[in-house]
Design a protein that fits this description.
Blueprint (H helix, E strand, L loop, with lengths): L4 E2 L5 E2 L10 E6 L9 H18 L3 E4 L13 H10 L5 E8 L5 H14 L4 E6 L6 H7 L3 H5 L1 H13 L16 E4 L3 H9 L2 E5 L9 H9 L11 E9 L3 H21 L15 H12 L2 E3 L1 H15 L3 E5 L5 H15 L1
Parallel strand pairs: 3-4, 3-11, 4-5, 5-6, 6-7, 7-8, 8-9, 9-10, 9-11
Antiparallel strand pairs: 1-2
Helix pairs in contact: 1-12, 3-6, 7-8, 9-10
């Protein structure tokens, strides 16, 4: 895929000739663990996938932040992003995202500035406002509802530390060079628009009936030194295979784990799944997860993604979703890359 250039305002310059109607296609890997495998192995799989994504022409490779989740090994995105960046050379590496309620904005700014300086400006700073999944995790992080409520103020402080306008400047000095993205849910859309930042939307915000969130973002957007115009990344699970059934099987383990988190309060490691042995309630959640994803043969996925872009006007596709079948996931990454190269 053609590498995106940037104009002086930080806005990506869209290349031409891409079959899929996105300026770029990227990957978000949550470092999900697999039943029967060491958690450390999951982190090494993340690095290997990033290296392959670079070869295939993906624009970005992001990692996430989750704490105390049995099925996810990715708890320290700044550390994991550094490992990924050290083993790649051209793909942009980032956080999708670092949760500001869990950290002091100055520390996040220092991490971003350091990663940007170490890796030639390849680091993307994605930030969010989610709290820990359980009360025990929130207590361990020493966070509460107040921290989430002050997300807008934290974003303002973070940007000031990065661009040097705060009483304290994050070192090494970043001068606002690191692109900043907001994982937007609810209030996050308004914060991103006011601060002039790119926005990452998934779930309900991508649904047709919730299109008002993106409209609000675009109408309220204020150009900034980070982004000269609104920029939207659409994030959703995508699986591509030679058959529709095979693509569905790739998504099934994560859908089952999500159902478990909603019915039993715990997201477990991914395991080989047939879809059998589910309660009616779990089956409902599994089907809900699958409906919110895009999966199928290359032609089916191409049509679905073109429709998504036409409906949302998203500039970039951020592919998420874990799989127990690593070979199947690697093949899915290849088949999707064939659609945008």
């Amino acid at each position: 895929m053609t590498r995106l250039a940037r104009n002086g305002a930080g806005t990506p310059v869209v290349p031409t000739g891409m079959p899929l109607p996105f300026a770029a296609v990227s990957i978000l890997d949550r470092a999900q663990s697999r039943q029967g495998s060491p958690e450390a192995e999951s982190l090494h799989h993340v690095i290997a996938r990033a290296q392959r994504a670079e070869e295939l022409g993906y624009r970005r490779f992001w990692v996430a932040e989750h704490h105390g989740v049995p099925g996810i090994a990715g708890s320290a995105p700044a550390v994991l992003a550094a490992a990924v960046a050290s083993r790649t050379s051209t793909i942009r590496v980032g956080s999708g995202g670092i949760m500001l309620p869990n950290h002091q904005p100055l520390v996040v700014a220092e991490q971003a500035a350091t990663l940007g300086a170490l890796f030639g400006g390849r680091f993307d700073l994605g930030i969010g406002r989610s709290l820990g999944f359980t009360q025990a995790v929130r207590s361990a992080l020493r966070t509460g509802k107040d921290e989430s409520a002050r997300f807008g103020e934290d974003v303002d402080d973070l940007l000031a530390f990065l661009d040097g306008s705060a009483p304290v400047t994050a070192r090494p000095a970043d001068a606002g060079r690191t692109p900043v993205f907001v994982l937007a849910t609810g209030h996050g859309v308004e914060v991103a628009a006011r601060a002039g930042l790119a926005v990452v939307v998934g779930g309900p915000a991508l649904a047709e009936e919730a299109g008002g969130a993106l409209e609000l973002y675009r109408e309220s957007f204020r150009p900034s030194r980070w982004w000269g115009r609104p920029y939207v990344l659409a994030s959703l699970n995508v699986a591509v295979a030679e058959t529709t059934a095979a693509a569905r099987r790739l998504l099934l383990p994560e859908a089952r784990a999500l159902a478990s988190s909603r019915t039993r309060g715990s997201f477990p490691p991914l395991r080989a799944e047939t879809g059998e042995g589910l309660t009616d309630r779990e089956s409902g959640y599994v089907e809900e997860s699958l409906r919110s994803a895009v999966h199928g043969t290359p032609s089916e996925v191409e049509r679905a993604l073109a429709d998504l872009q036409a409906r949302t006007g998203a500039d970039e596709l951020l592919v998420s979703g874990g799989a127990y079948d690593l070979e199947g996931r690697a093949r899915s990454d290849e088949l999707l890359a064939d659609l945008f190269r």
